[in-house]
Amino acid sequence: MKAKVLEELINSGLSTREIAEKLDKSQTNVRYWLSKYGLKTQKNKYNKGEAKPKICRICGSETKRRNVCNSCGVSIRRTRCKIAAVKYLSSECKICGWKGKVEEYSAYEFHHRDPNEKDFTVSGIMNKSWDVVKEELNKCDLVCSRCHNILHSSRFRDDFVKEALNYKGHKMDGLV
User: Checking DSSP bridges between strand 108-112 and strand 140-144, what pairing results, if any?
Assistant: First the structure.
């Protein structure tokens, strides 16, 4: 393709598609030669110049494809899955009976009744299919963070706490 022919077609206001049709070439071929010669078609309704970067409507960072960046998209997916999981397990702490609002979903945790049956941590697999998540949820109790902390700190720990209270090592002024 000759540069002069391309220049004349560009000056007449044709797009790359129209140039390709007129020369009986592919649009890719036309773009190749335009690039090779450093030519650009005139701006029209299809070619509006450089695309403006999109801004994530949640965190304000720049994103290329959507109104939400990848990081925020993952957070949204995980949040929606956790809320669904909390609702699936009745939205109530199995131990103290606390029932939080939907906005307080993060105060709930999933406690495996039998650690030996645990295939994976529920919060870490929120990108799996809902059926896979439900199978694991069926092995769990929904508990609030406070009760979950107590469950894990009191397991096999009574002797340790007694030992710590009776320890005669370095004194901690005013504490123990």
Answer: antiparallel
**Taking a C-beta distance cutoff of 8 angstroms, is the pair 163, 155 a contact?**
no
Q: What digits encode the pLDDT tens for the residues 136-147?
A: 999 999 999 999
Q: Is this structure's pTM higher than 0.70?
A: no
Give the residue extent of every domain in the chain. Answer: 3-37, 70-159
Query: DSSP assignment of 124-166, as one string?
Result: GGTTS-HHHHHHHHTTEEEEEHHHHHHHHHHTTTHHHHHHHHH
DSSP H stretches of helix in 25-157 = 27-37, 70-88, 130-137, 145-154
- Quick check: helix, strand or coil at residue 112? strand
Cα(156)–Cα(9) distance, rounded to whole angstroms? 82
